């Protein structure tokens, strides 16, 4: 799993710009969490169509995983895992709690998703 510094968003935007943007977002939307979510580079899961999210404070990690699953349209037999600072947060944890514990000094929370086949490929039968 890549380190937090390996996020493309961090490479594309200097720290001061990210910090100012996160502060502006938190001021304008105090009940939301600024999240950057990117695909783990080695994962075979499709990339998500956007990487910046404004997450409600009361959303759980499991609900956020559901949002990501819907955006990338992966089959049900594929599992998806979300990591924050190389740890797997509990699905029942509130995103606000995870944010308080894992936010970056720039004010964003960086999450990475990846997956694996949990039940193998579906059985194909001949016609």
Characterize this entry briefly.
A lipid is attached at residue 120 (Phosphatidylserine amidated glycine). The protein has 127 residues and is α+β, with helices and mostly antiparallel strands.
Relative strand content? 15-25%
Order of helices and strands: HHEEHEHE
Quote the CATH topology: Ubiquitin-like (UB roll)
Mean pLDDT: 88
Question: CATH homologous superfamily - what is it?
Answer: Phosphatidylinositol 3-kinase Catalytic Subunit, Chain A, domain 1
Low-confidence stretches: 117-127
Rounded to an integer in angstroms, the radius of gyration calculated over CA atoms is: 16 Å
**General shape:** globular
How many domains comprise the coordinates? Answer: 1
Helix count, DSSP H or I runs of 4 or more residues: 4
Biggest beta sheet summary: 4 strands, mixed
> What structural class results from the helix and strand content?
alpha+beta
CATH class (first level) name: Alpha Beta
Number of beta-strand segments: 4
Description:
This protein is α+β, with helices and mostly antiparallel strands. It has helices at about 10, 15-30, 60-70, 95-100, and strands spanning about 30-40, 50-55, 80-85, 110-115. It starts with 7 loop residues before the first helix and ends in a 10-residue tail after the last strand. One of its GO terms (biological process) is autophagy. Belongs to the ATG8 family.
């Amino acid at each position: 799993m890549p380190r937090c510094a390996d996020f493309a968003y961090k490479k594309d935007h200097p720290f001061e710009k990210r910090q100012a943007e996160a502060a502006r977002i938190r001021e304008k939307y105090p009940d939301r969490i600024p999240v950057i979510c990117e695909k783990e580079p080695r994962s075979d899961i499709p990339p998500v169509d956007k990487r910046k999210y404004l997450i409600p404070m009361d959303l759980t990690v499991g609900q956020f995983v559901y949002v990501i699953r819907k955006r990338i349209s992966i089959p049900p037999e594929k599992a998806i895992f979300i990591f924050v600072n190389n740890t797997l947060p509990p699905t029942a944890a509130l995103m606000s709690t995870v944010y308080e514990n894992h936010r970056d000094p720039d004010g964003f929370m960086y999450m990475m998703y990846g997956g694996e086949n949990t039940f193998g490929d579906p059985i194909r039968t001949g016609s």
